[in-house]
């Protein structure tokens, strides 16, 4: 069953019942997914930037935008307007496919994976997950990789509180650590 259909048939009604919503449209749902990569100390290496953008394109299926520095920071040798990262925003069907791939394929491939800490859910009900390397994603072939980079994935929801967001992600199938 597709994740979008699962939300409509199972997750939405369970959330409505648990939190006492009067309308199914008030239940928390996935709003967007933002995938971020910072170039860090490789900010001046064109080859590294190109490989990161190519990797991010393969992972998300969408070309990333390059993010620029808002102000100069002399301690980090960053000038105003300098390209310091890449970002992809996923919405709609692509977003649900990405979450499905994340839960069913990527997390089982992460080395020493024991679940995600529930501290990753903020007070607005959004979940942020960090990856030290991009190799667990199925589109990346380890023998073709020149540069390994980390990335951050933020799953933004329409939840109002942390409890609503946590319950939504549990019903979605995100593997949280058990205490």
Topology:
Blueprint: H1 3-19, E1 30-38, H2 46-60, E2 65-68, E3 83-90, H3 92-109, E4 127-131, E5 151-157, H4 162-172
Antiparallel strand pairs: 1-3, 1-5, 2-3, 4-5
Helix pairs in contact: 1-4
Beginning-to-end CA distance, first to last residue: 30 Å
What's the order of the H and E elements?
HEHEEHEEH
Strand order of the largest sheet: 2-3-1-5-4
Helix content: 25-40%
Note the overall shape. globular
Total number of beta strands: 5
How many whole angstroms does the radius of gyration measure? Answer: 18 Å
Strand content: 15-25%
The low-confidence parts are none
How large is the count of helical segments? 4
Account of the 3D structure:
- The structure is a single chain.
- The longest helix is centred in the middle third of the chain and has 18 residues, at 92-109.
- It contains four helices and five strands.
- The chain has 179 residues and is α+β, with helices and mostly antiparallel strands.
- It has a domain at 40-89.
- The model has no long low-confidence stretch (mean pLDDT 89).
- The chain starts with a helix and ends in a 7-residue tail after the last helix.
- Strands 2-3-1-5-4 form a five-stranded antiparallel β-sheet.
């Amino acid at each position: 069953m597709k994740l979008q259909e699962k939300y409509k048939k199972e997750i939405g009604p369970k959330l409505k019942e648990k939190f006492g919503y009067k309308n199914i449209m008030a239940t928390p749902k996935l709003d967007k997914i933002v995938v971020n990569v910072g170039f860090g100390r490789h900010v001046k290496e064109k080859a590294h930037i190109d490989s990161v953008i190519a990797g991010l394109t393969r992972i998300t299926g969408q070309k990333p935008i390059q993010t620029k520095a808002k102000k100069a920071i002399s301690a980090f040798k960053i000038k105003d307007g300098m390209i310091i990262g890449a970002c992809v925003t996923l919405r709609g069907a692509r977003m649900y496919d990405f979450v499905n791939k994340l839960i069913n394929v990527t997390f089982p491939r992460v080395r020493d994976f024991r679940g995600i800490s529930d501290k990753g859910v903020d007070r607005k009900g959004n979940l942020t997950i960090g990856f030290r390397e991009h190799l667990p994603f199925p589109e990346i072939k380890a023998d073709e990789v020149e540069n390994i980079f980390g990335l951050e994935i933020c799953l933004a929801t329409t939840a109002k509180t942390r409890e609503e967001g946590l319950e939504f992600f549990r019903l979605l199938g995100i593997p949280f650590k058990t205490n």
